[in-house]
Task: inverse folding
């Protein structure tokens, strides 16, 4: 239920976000060593190469060798950073979600209400998927990877389980459902809503989808920023 950046939605169809793949949390102000900077650059090169190739050729057609050739790096270097093709592509999604979440934490004015935390979590996911629509469709659609889909679901479930412990007493009071079941219901609703939204022709914006998801779960309109 990671809450999201509240800035104006900006349509974007390319995954290339400058230093997204090399970005650390702004809360970590310790200077990087030269070795650390080199590792981050190398990791970013591999992720960007993988993303570009998937968009060009489709998920199944891309190999580790293709990725290292495009990045002009050796296979040994690839395996220093990643286990396999799914790992590098999952890192692309995870890095983007974490970067968006970090920006939201920095930009939130005052202490957010529990309902705002949940709503902006949905908004974060939909906006990130919207900015990287093509990649999400390739990797998480019917022709994508079952392994990668499983990792996305596991990540969302872990985030939801963590946040539910804090949010349930305040906004899920009266939900007579075991936590582990509620986590799976919310996770499935988020994932399937995003997948349907990306794959089915419709005119709904990311903000509208997040609002409708919140309303479907809580039977009330989502909170608005102050």
Result:
């Amino acid at each position: 239920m990671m809450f999201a950046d509240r800035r104006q939605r900006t349509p974007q169809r390319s995954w290339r976000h400058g230093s997204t793949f090399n970005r650390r949390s702004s809360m970590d102000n310790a200077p990087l060593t030269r070795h650390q900077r080199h590792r981050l650059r190398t990791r970013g090169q591999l992720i960007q190469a993988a993303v570009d190739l998937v968009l060009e050729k489709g998920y199944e057609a891309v190999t580790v060798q293709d990725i290292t050739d495009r990045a002009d790096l050796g296979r040994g270097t690839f395996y220093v950073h990643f286990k396999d093709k799914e790992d590098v592509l999952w890192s692309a999604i995870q890095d983007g979600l974490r970067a968006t979440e970090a920006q939201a934490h920095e930009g939130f004015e005052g202490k957010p209400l529990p309902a705002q935390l949940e709503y902006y979590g949905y908004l974060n996911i939909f906006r990130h998927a919207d900015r990287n629509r093509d990649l999400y469709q390739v990797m998480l659609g019917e022709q994508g990877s079952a392994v990668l889909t499983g990792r996305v679901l596991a990540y969302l479930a872990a985030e939801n389980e963590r946040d539910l412990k804090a949010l349930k007493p305040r906004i899920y009071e009266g939900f007579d459902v075991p936590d582990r079941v509620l986590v799976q219901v919310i996770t499935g609703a988020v994932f399937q809503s995003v997948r349907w939204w990306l794959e089915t022709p419709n005119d709904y914006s990311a903000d509208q989808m997040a609002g409708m998801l919140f309303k479907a779960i809580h039977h009330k309109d989502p909170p608005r920023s102050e």
